[in-house]
What we know:
Layout lengths: L5 H30 L1 H40 L2 E9 L12 E2 H10 L3 E16 L2 E10 L3 H4 L2 E6 L4 H5 L4 E5 H8 L2 H4 L3 E4 L2 E11 L13 E5 H8 L3 E2 L1 E6 L5 H14 L5 E7 L1 H43 L1 H9 L4 H33 L12 H27 L3 H6 L2
Parallel strand pairs: 4-9, 6-8
Antiparallel strand pairs: 1-11, 1-12, 2-10, 3-4, 3-7, 3-11, 5-8, 6-9, 7-8
Amino acid sequence: xxxxxxxxxxxxxxxxxxGLVFHEILTMGLESLRADKLRATMTALSMAVGTAAxxxxxxVALTGRSYVLDQIxxxxxxxxxxxxxxxxxGPTSTGLGDYLxxxxxxxxxxxxxxxxxxxxxxxxxxxxxxQSRNVETLILGVDPQYQxxxxxxxxxxxxFDQADSESAIKVALVSESxxxxxxxxxxxxxxxxxxxxxxxxxxIGTFRESVDTMGRSEIEDNTILVPxxxxxxxxxxxxxxxxxxxxxxxxxxxxxxxxxxxxxTSRHRPESTYDVSNMTGVLEAAKKIAAAxxxxxxxxxxxxxxxGGVGIMNIMWATVHSRIHEIGVRKxxxxxxxxxxxxxxxxxxxxxxxxxxxxxxVGMATSMSMRFFIDYHVYVSVVSAAIAFLVCCxxxxxxxxxxAQNASRLDPVECLRHE
Length: 419
């Protein structure tokens, strides 16, 4: 009879034995939690709050960042503007000013290929006569491309076209606030006649900026847009206040800004200075602010999760202390240090998993419900929910391992003597 290869038999049986032991550890860990439901529930609740907070922070951060960047882009991130600021020795008088003209705009369009659209802006403060009433208004003389460059939203009627501009047709668009104040509503303003410098203009539309700039742009509440060809004769000068350019590719903004500045300065006196700017700096600043706020909010959420981890550690220390006699009995009948440690570690992981799952459900549900209360697209990140759950589980293991190791190192004789 051939001898039995005990080593080989042991190696075959080992996986099954390990599986049974591990199954027993999981079962005992679950039974221990059931025995003290209140303490486990309260600890899991703290983990749930932390997990839900992480998910909500990411949702709020992504949504807020997208909203801010969209608002800036609606103002025009592809826009470059230029205006005369004076001379290197200081501002000059009107008579000596080296102001911009439409010829500068034409030169830029010809020499800077990145420019897609352009428009001059002439600003005139005039009294508008509406139904025998004088209203102080800001008249802006612009080209038809101004609507695309500045992303002007025409709420009623239409914008004047190239034919209107070339023929110097006396048409106008009034701001929404001015239309409501002087005509009662937007539709009632269409077709009305207003007089500027005793010249009659037909209102063909009402407009507003895509984003309310709170008066931080060239557009005010009482603003009227008229063709530049008409405003040119009203001002009696070829000079313009600003030149606006729209760039086809946002990545070309820095290079296009430098090129536009070079073209303009080459056409004027050396001592004349011009401000040629874009929204790139504002956009980058907004991104940095959004990132900083997100980091701060994530730190607050992380503190909540760490507090939950401390709670897990406390409950595991209390559990180990209350079950010292049980640990002694288990060691006396052959339980290894590894089995003892895994049992208590599983209990900590159970609490973290339950809290993480509950927090993930609450966080995702709350994030999705925000869509019903916010008139904007809410970004719900599934990846952030998965990461929050994994972090919660990791914290459960990290904060549970010390009490578990302490339980596994207890002397069985001393444990059996413990009352």
